[in-house]
Design goal:
Blueprint (H helix, E strand, L loop, with lengths): L3 E3 L3 H13 L4 H7 L5 H14 L2 E2 H10 L4 H24 L5 E7 L2 E6 L9 H12 L3 E4 L4 E5 L6 E6 L6 E3 L1
Antiparallel strand pairs: 1-2, 1-8, 3-4, 3-5, 5-6, 6-7
């Protein structure tokens, strides 16, 4: 079983909805045609795909095969969606954001703390390290939307620079 999930396939989802509608196939029929027993759950998955562009690779292949969508057309739409998603991601990354800290309070719970404007840029890492040590919490210095540095709560040492994911379309689980 494949564990690849596509996100952001908006054009692909709209095209599949259009083809399905032209063929007069309801979502519940489509769920049965792709071979799933739990029709309600699969109707929900198909709806999410058509409206939000999120689908597993396995289900996308089954849907395309069921609707007789040529593989070349499907690949072209997926490629267009990936390009569009990458463009939107790059636009988002290029917007400036003031440096701030993200403090890990407990697993899954974080607090954003804005760095005072009086802290010079060459002191940002020291400020974050000191905050991590004083609060005894892991702290991330977010310098911009592409670069961040984590500091350990015990030693206040940078544990490495982290770069945000540059391919926003695929999640591997």
């Amino acid at each position: 079983m494949r564990h690849e999930k596509f996100i952001g396939l908006f054009q692909t989802g709209r095209h599949i909805r259009k083809v399905r509608s032209q063929q007069g196939i309801r979502l519940s029929e489509m769920a049965r045609l792709v071979g799933y027993g739990n029709v309600n759950r699969e109707v929900q998955r198909l709806h999410v795909f058509e409206s939000e562009g999120i689908i597993s690779e396995e289900l996308l292949e089954k849907v395309a095969e069921t609707l007789a969508v040529p593989l070349e057309d499907l690949q072209r739409l997926v490629d267009l969606d990936r390009q569009d998603s990458q463009r939107r991601f790059e636009e988002w990354c290029s917007k400036s954001e003031p440096p701030h800290l993200v403090i890990r309070l407990i697993p899954g719970v974080y607090q954003r703390v804005w760095v005072p404007v009086s802290v010079p840029s060459d002191w940002l890492e020291q400020y974050a390290a000191t905050t991590a040590t004083e609060r005894e919490k892991q702290t991330c210095l977010v310098m911009n939307r592409r670069e961040s540095v984590w500091f350990d709560e015990d030693e206040g040492l940078a544990s490495g620079r982290q770069r945000h994911r540059t391919s926003p379309c695929i999640i591997r689980s």
